[in-house]
Every structure is written in structure tokens, then in C-alpha cells.
Amino acid sequence: xxxxxxxxxxxxxxxxxxxxxxxxxxxxxxxxxxxxxxxxxxxxxxxxxxxxxxxxxxxxxxxxxxxxxxxxxxxxxxxxxxxxxxxxxxxxxxxxxxxxxxxxxxxxxxxxxxxxxxxxxxxxxxxxxxxxxxxxxxxxxxxxxxxxxxxxxxxxxxxxxxxxxxxxxxxxxxxxxxxxxxxxxxxxxxxxxxxxxxxxxxxxxxxxxxxxxxxxxxxxxxxxxxxxxxxxxxxxxxxxxxxxxxxxxxxxxxxxxxxxxxxxxxxxxxxxxxxxxxxxxxxxxxxxxxxxxxxxxxxxxxxxxxxxxxxxxxxxxxxxxxxxxxxxxxxxxxxxxxxxxxxxxxxxxxxxxxxxxxxxxxxxxxxxxxxxxxxxxxx
Length: 379
Fold this sequence. Notes:
Distance between the termini: 72 Å
CATH topology of the largest domain: Beta-Lactamase
Strand content: 15-25%
């Protein structure tokens, strides 16, 4: 029954990826070709893999769900190769000619900050800076056609300031008619950054600059709140949102008042007036993240949110996180210590902008308490 169980898992993964593709219909027009590429890959996957697999299981042939119980040398060798692939100390990905990820080893997971289960079935170009995607797709296609190995410099979307060397080589998986592409990633520095180390091997001066920038933001927030007239809750929220917008986040959404909350402020990037209006018309009660923050009083930090419905749908019916092209978000309750939640502040970053870091989440958590204090300051 091992083969049957494995087929069931593969089919369930396919259904999940199709659901994600359906939710991607509202992405910006420039990103639609990537979604189309992924959809075509899924169709190929059904025709080339799932359907023949189903026929073998239905016929009860030698590749079906029953085995003799004796070890299969080919299967043992495949298992060994998979283990070696996962344990390689360098970041390695196996992609098809359309750059859709088939496998991502442990080192690549740490290097890119993207979990293997999330990356599988998605184009690797989706994790690169927009300017590098076309060149990477072109080189991967050439390698898959058998035109020789290639190497190029790209930038990860989450760390656009860090050059990454991508080396591509053709590989013919056993029993498959077409070449796959093996991608080896290496940083411009001397060591591989990991997800635990934040931004990786970046000079100390850069870290100091980021810390100073964050402290400037906290100072600007404090100044704005202290200059707000006492007892003017609306002004405190508006000034706080103004400080955070653009310099710290692409989108700022403020929900305030007693439960159920009321959406009071939505600030978005330039050219997003229609999307901002649709988001402003959304009921906060329809946003799972907002409801959870208001009830539990806990800060939520998400990088590449897996659930496109985590912030609900806007007035147009599109998933907010998809329409706004959200790559990372922060959702914090506005409350003083041991006091009730008086609102929820949500920030989005989109496109190639660096994802929110733990340090930034801690700073926003501190600023949220200051905002709550300004909201409750007596006249």
C-alpha cells in the first residue's frame, strides 16, 4: 500500500497547488506569465506523472501498490541519492525547464529562507528580484535544451543587496524524457547565510546603519505621538500611520474601536487608489489575522504568507494578500500592558522590498504600546 499512500499524498499536494493558482488570478498583470507558467507545469505534471501512475495502480502491475517484501535495489539507490541531495552542504535546487522547483535541499532552504514544502511546485524565479527573473528563465531553458552549463549572478527577493551566484547544469532524472536543471547557489561572501542569521554575511556597518534607521523611525513615532493633542484618538492613529507608511511599510491598515473593530485608515503605494478603496471597505471581522490579534493580543510576523486568505478578501472579492502582492506582513494589537486591545495595526511589504525582520517586529511591538498610550491619554 506504500505506492497507493504516496500517490494519495501527491494528489493532495496537486489539489493544494491548484487552489493556490486559483487564488493567484488577482495578481498584478506583470506577474501573470509566472502564474501561467506554473499552471502549465501542473497540467504537464498530471499528464506525464499522475495519470500514468494512476493507471499502474489501477492495473495492479509490478509498479502498483503491492510489493513482494524484498528490497528493490533501484529503489534503495534512489532513496540514497535523495538523502545525499538533501544532505549536501551547499544550497541546491532541482527545477524543470520553466524553473518550477521539484526539490530543494536543506541548505537551500536556509539560504533562501523559504521552506521546501512551500517552494515545491512554484517557480524558483518567484524568489528572485524581478530584474533577474527573465535572464534566469532564459538560461534555465537553454541548459534544459542541452546547450551547456551556465552561470549568472542574481539577487534573492528577500535580500536584494546580496549578490548570489547561480550555477545551472542539465540533469536527466531516471525514467524521464526531458532534462531537469540542477541549480547551485552560492553567495558573493565567504559563507552561506542561514534563515537563523537574518540577513547573512552582511558587514557590521550595514547592520549598524539598519539599527540607526530603526531608531530614527522610533524617534519619529515618539515625536509624532507627543505632538498629538491629548484625548484625540483619531489624530494619534493618523499620525502613527503616516510615520510608518512608505518609509517602513508599503501598506498601513488601522482598525480601531471596541469589538467589532472599525477600519479607520488605509494607506497604500502610489497608484493603488482603487485597491486602497476596496481594502478600506472590507470589514475587519472578515480578516482572520486582525480578529486573532484583537482577541489574543499577540503580534504576528509572516514572511511569504502561505494562506492567501489570511487577511480575507477585499470589497472586489480578491484575496487581499494576493492583490497587494504581499511578501511579508506584521499585525500588532494596540494595547497598553494589562489593558484591553483598542485597535489593530497591520503593515504589508510587497515586491522586492526586504521582508520584515525580528528586530523590526520588536520595534513595532514597542511602538504599538506607545500608540495605545497616546490613544488613551486624558485631555
